[in-house]
Amino acid sequence: MKLTSLLFSMLAATVVSGVAFAQAPIVIKFSHVVSVDTPKGKAAERFKELAEKATKGRVKVELYPNSTLYKDKEELEALQLGAVQMLAPSLAKFGPLGVKEFEVFDLPFIFPDKDVLYRVTEGQIGKDLMKKLEPKGIVGLGFWDNGFKVMSANKSIHLPGDLKGQKLRIQSSKVLDAQMRALGANPQVLAFSEVYQALQTGVVDGTENPPSNLYTQKMHEVQKHVTLTNHGYLGYAVIVNKKFWDGLPADIRGELDTAMKSATKYANAIAQQENDKALEAIKKSGKSTVYLPSVAERNEWRKALLPVQKTMEDRIGKELIANVNKEAAALGYK
Ligand code: LMR
């Protein structure tokens, strides 16, 4: 090769690699523990679609659903270390991170309906909670809804006393621990990915979750009875590694913020219908009975579980609990 053509091809190679380098997409690894076919799974897919489109391929979102990359506890560590950039853990999983206030969402019967919940997540309380994540190297981008939880076990559950002595799987929340103890049950913290097998092998007797999680993990196939107690709430905070987020070009961060706002609206719009569909599918499967407590029975559940709001005051903060209750009062609940 002549010197001029050698120089030319070296120059061309430099230009090409320079272009390739300039165009290498920013990768967001988004790990989560539930099935794709859930409110969170679907909203994560919607975020990917919107984010990649709005940034014209400058951002690539890689989704890792169903604990394929990390389990519950590991994923929060991975986020802080920067091994993944985005997660949407349930609000019951922030205690071990040292942000105990998030467990306010776990308090039994704290949200009389979803309107009260949205006043909390979309108002000042939600903003203040997200701010508490920043010293941990985390930025909160939005709250995604799932739904109210049902109880399941291999014995029929009508009244709170029916769960006495049962080993029940919970998430890593001290409020959920107190809740199960208030029923006389033995709570056991397990990663979400381990629940099906633990139920199948009898390591635990029962559990709680919204129907969408129960159904998509096939827990209803290894539980004889499901009771629609709707005693507590399950939702998520979508979070990013702060160093990663702050280091993004401002225009990209803006586009991602907009994509997240749309994905959040979508998540909150589909949550109820996804859970309704899952509940119908559980009923249709014939694998578990589905029991709706009477008004009198529901009052018994409230009576058994409401004291947890008081006993958890020291952990969560009296003022925070009172502020959430004020949002309920603003909508006419007392
Ligand atoms: C659980 O661990 O039970 C759920 O929080 C899983 C999830 O993310 O919905």
Number of strands: 11
Molecules bound to protein: (2S)-2-hydroxybutanedioic acid
Q: Report the span from N to C terminus.
A: 86 Å
So what's the overall shape? globular
Number of domains: 1
What portion of residues is helical? 40-55%
Level-2 CATH architecture: 3-Layer(aba) Sandwich
SSE topology sketch:
Elements: H1 3-23, E1 26-31, H2 39-54, E2 59-64, H3 72-81, E3 86-87, H4 114-121, H5 124-131, E4 138-148, E5 150-153, E6 167-170, H6 174-182, E7 186-189, H7 195-201, E8 206-209, H8 211-216, E9 225-227, E10 233-241, H9 242-246, H10 250-285, E11 289-291, H11 295-305, H12 307-311, H13 313-316, H14 318-330
Parallel strand pairs: 1-2, 1-3, 6-7, 6-8, 9-11
Antiparallel strand pairs: 3-10, 4-10, 5-8, 5-9
Bound molecules: (2S)-2-hydroxybutanedioic acid.
Residues 33-34, 90, 146, 171, 192, 209, 213, 234 line the site of (2S)-2-hydroxybutanedioic acid (LMR).
Family: Belongs to the bacterial solute-binding protein 7 family.
InterPro entries: DctP_fam (IPR018389), TRAP_DctP (IPR004682), TRAP_DctP_sf (IPR038404)
Pfam family, one: DctP
